[in-house]
Design goal:
Elements lengths: L9 E5 H18 L3 E5 L5 E5 H17 L6 E9 L2 E8 L33 H11 L3 E5 L8 E7 L31
Parallel strand pairs: 2-4
Antiparallel strand pairs: 1-3, 4-5, 5-7, 6-7
Helix pairs in contact: 1-2, 2-3
């Protein structure tokens, strides 16, 4: 993490794409624990970032929310734009973070107290990696919690990509064409 060995492959894309990938990656743990995941992401919010790395950050936040919440809990992932930034908020109703741990939650190998069975354990790397990736993109990440048993909220701020230049208007419309027979299909599952 500290050697600068992470290479970013930046591209302009809609943040909704990274959100969809993160939701897909974490859907098994949400299904297993019967959590309710609510996602609010408007279309048209673009960032200039590494799509895979941003999805990795979001999937880490979602996985932690699922892991540290009781079965059937609700998790909210909300995206909005403010002050030239895309703001991503992941809120859960889980075990929360003790006040003394909040300032250190992104440090390497830092973990809160776990139950005796250690089922919720990990190496304490996920949030440190998330912070590094967000900062490499010129953003920030913060943790909030009102304490043990009060849930947690993680807020990621990434610079929004400038609006795309408008394409020039064509003087005359081309003749309508029949779509090719091998056009792809889109399946939306709710």
């Amino acid at each position: 993490l500290r050697r600068g060995a992470i290479e970013l492959r930046r591209e302009r894309f809609e943040i909704a794409d990274a959100v969809a990938r993160a939701v897909e990656m974490t859907s098994p743990v949400f299904a297993e624990k019967q959590h309710r995941l609510e996602v609010e992401v408007p279309g048209g919010l673009h960032i200039d970032a590494d799509r895979i790395r941003i999805a990795q950050v979001l999937s880490n936040l979602l996985a932690n929310a699922a892991k540290y919440s009781e079965s059937g809990a609700q998790v909210l992932l909300r995206v909005r734009e403010a002050d030239g930034h895309v703001i991503i908020e992941c809120r859960d109703t889980g075990i929360g973070i003790p006040a003394d741990l909040v300032p250190r939650v992104f440090d390497l190998f830092v973990q809160g107290q776990r139950g005796i069975d250690r089922r919720q354990g990990g190496l304490g790397l996920g949030l440190a990696v998330a912070r590094t990736l967000v900062e490499l993109h010129g953003g920030s990440i913060e943790a909030r919690s009102d304490g043990t048993g009060q849930g947690s909220t993680f807020v990621v701020r990434l610079p929004a990509a400038p609006a795309a230049a408008a394409s020039p208007v064509q003087e005359r419309s081309p003749a309508p064409q029949k779509p090719p027979a091998d056009i792809g299909r889109v399946l939306v599952v709710d």
